Amino acid sequence: MARPAHRLTMAALALAAGGATAALPTAPVHAESLTAASTATVRLHPTSSATQSPAAASAGQRTAAPKPGGEAPVRRRLVGSWTTSTDRVTAALGGQTVRMVVRASIGGTGTRLRLSNVFGEAPVTFENVHVGVQAYGAEILAGTNRPVTFGARTSVRVPPGQAVWSDPIPGRIAGGSALVVSLHLPGTVRGVTGHERAYTTTYLSDPGDHAAEENGEGFTYTSTQWYFLDRVAVEAGAATIGSVVAFGDSITDGAGQAVDANRRWTDYLRQRLAHESPSRRMGVLNAGIAGNRLLNPNVGPSGLSRFYRDALSQPGVRTVVVYEGINDISRGAYTSIKPIVYGYKRLIREAHARKVKVLGATLTPFYGFGTWTPEREEIRQRLNEWIRTSKAFDGVLDFDRAVRDPEFPEQLAVAYDSGDHLHLSDAGRRALAYAVNPRLL
Q: Residue 356 — pLDDT band, cuts 50, 70, 90?
């Protein structure tokens, strides 16, 4: 069972009632049709609501009515608060309820969830979806579990290869909230879209619909995968400047941490940015896949093929941190850095074409790991020098310098090594977060 959370802390993060809503399109939205480039807006008047066009829903922008006294209207837009990168996962689901816990990186109103069947082979029906705030384990804080609708309906059928956003959920969530999303799956699902290494407990029920229940008594099984849910976004005010996407492999995904610890380097970055100036609030989105490679598919699609879907199509994306390539080096036979440099340049072009800033992170040491060789170390060193000096990226995050052993820079400092000489300890992941210059974001 998940580590209990303090009830008083969670109570402070409860969903608050109220807030204007606007409906999203009733048809499923394709996973790669949501671009941050659209600028359509909808104006909501004080005594009425409006239905957004598909373009406006994709952009997630709207302007609230002018305040009394002639104050300027408050412009709000959809910004990513949580994400995970998906693939097809091995799972047998159906006729039961799935209850997942995810942590919102920023708060806001009009929360939306996205359910994905991108890697599915057949349509998937979701019934009686609910979202609440975690008390502990599978239990939801009393009074916070709310129904989620899709085109004003309580169920939605998502075709294979597609994903769908929910309608806005009334109320406000706070940044750092542990949200509990419950999905009832009335039929058997083969070909499950999900995330293999969530490092978070997911609760699975006995047969039946337990989505609306706030107690966790109906959930008797657990896993450490996420299923179908791949995004949470909120309507954020002008103080939120957008979101930063961490695009990477297992070091970004969170390898080395305990289950339910929430100690990915992106979790530490979220905590750090929460103490920054209110004018620089950002969503922090983790698009890491353990085992992923930049150039070729291995675990999950290659970084090149998933970059648009997992990074550039995120609502409100402002910056992407590219921290990927160590699996290409450590398991490849490259004699030149040119193929990986080509891959980086392609990602940079794609990001710049959509006016998204892209930062390059140097690759951290792996001396002592089973696949290390002097030849692979030379490629890593040369590639890091290119990242630092080429000026191809909009900025550089020197993760290598942050965690390497000053006396032996080919290896991780002992305090930052999880024990396998590749993945980082909690202290090492924290060091990455504090190596980020917030002004670059």
A: very high
Q: State yes or no: pLDDT of 1 exceeds 90.
A: no
**Tally of CB atoms within 10 A around 19:** 16
- Cα dihedral across residues 271, 273, 276, 281: positive or negative: negative
The answer as to CATH 3.40.50.1110 being correct for domain 239-440 is yes
Distance from chain centroid for Cα 170 = 22
DSSP assignments along 66-87, one per residue: PBTTTBPPPEEEEEEEEE---E
Instruction: Calculate mean pLDDT across residues 352-381.
Output: 98
pLDDT above 50 for 269: yes
Residue that is written with structure tokens 């989505």 in the block: 211
Helical spans, DSSP H, in 308-356: 326-330, 338-353
The answer to whether the CB of 379 falls within 8 A of the CB of 329 is: yes
* Burial call 354-365: b when 16+ CB within 10 Å, e when fewer: eebbbbbbbbbb
Taking a C-beta distance cutoff of 8 angstroms, is the pair 435, 399 a contact?
Answer: yes
Which residue in 314, 169, 172 sits closest to 243, CA to CA? Answer: 314
Separation of alpha carbons 98 and 205, rounded Å: 7
Helix (H) or strand (E) holding 433: helix 426-434
